[in-house]
Amino acid sequence: MHRFFVDRKNISEEKKEIIIDYREDVKHIGKVLRLCKEDCIEVCDGNNNDYIGKIISISKSQIKLEILERKICDTEPQIQVALFQGIPKSSKMDMIVQKCTELGIYKIVPIITERTIVQLKDKKAEIKKIERWQKIADSAAKQCKRGIIPKVEAPLSFEEMLNSLADYDLKIIPYEQEKKVGLKNILSRNKEYKKIAIIIGPEGGFEYEEIIKAHNAGIVPIMLGPRILRTETAGLVALSVLMYEIGDLGGY
């Protein structure tokens, strides 16, 4: 069944009615999918509530649904994981956003480090990039039936990122020079983490001084295995291991 997200204000459980008025979704439902009155679609409010709605009217500006069923979405992990990703070259960030959304990421924050090659020329270019990445997250969240849409936030400098991590239970930074501390070992010490931050460097990794600053800020350098992973691989691996260890991937 086709799935769409709507703002909570567009759902009236009292009237048993949902209004879809996001222009691209209206066009997609009517023109691309060619759905008609009496067809049913799945709708999520972005806050873990799912609805089955039957189309009762279609216009160019909105689609009205009758609520047939409401249920709690069961696809969200029990922990909130944020990825702080050094901005990579080319379209690598597109893939990172898409796949991390599929794996259960809570939010993604691009970061600018010493070795970041990509330069966002101005605020307009930055906004355009964020809008693109957010659309990719939106689409991936629909496809994999997420209960929320992960937010792609505005880029932070490395220092700004360090100052934003106070409320995380665990903060990890994969580093190729770390040879002893592994992610599995850290997770075995405490299974009660609720908010976890993963910090990934761009191509070329982090400067040693950045690792020292991160360590001083309570971020744990870890190894992800004996091989050096690309920037677009490292975050996905760390996230996958986290989800597996909490039982979100591979069963309990």
From TrEMBL:
| Family the entry assigns | Belongs to the RNA methyltransferase RsmE family.
The cross-references to InterPro entries, in alphabetical order and at most eight, read: RsmE, RsmE_MTase_dom, RsmE_PUA-like
Q: What is its main location?
A: cytoplasm
* EC numbers: 2.1.1.193
Q: Where in the cell is it found?
A: Cytoplasm
Q: Does the keyword rRNA processing apply?
A: yes
The protein's UniProt keywords, in alphabetical order, are: Cytoplasm, Methyltransferase, rRNA processing, S-adenosyl-L-methionine, Transferase
The role this protein plays is: Specifically methylates the N3 position of the uracil ring of uridine 1498 (m3U1498) in 16S rRNA. Acts on the fully assembled 30S ribosomal subunit.
CDD domains annotated for this entry? RsmE-like
Q: Where does the Ribosomal RNA small subunit methyltransferase E methyltransferase domain start and stop, copy by copy?
A: 77-243
Keyword Coiled coil belongs to the record: no
Q: Which GO terms describe its biological process?
A: methylation
User: What sort of enzyme, by top EC class, is this?
Assistant: transferase
Listed under catalytic activity are:
uridine(1498) in 16S rRNA + S-adenosyl-L-methionine = N(3)-methyluridine(1498) in 16S rRNA + S-adenosyl-L-homocysteine + H(+)
**UniProt domain Ribosomal RNA small subunit methyltransferase E PUA-like: residue ranges:** 24-68
This protein is called Ribosomal RNA small subunit methyltransferase E
Annotated GO MF terms: methyltransferase activity
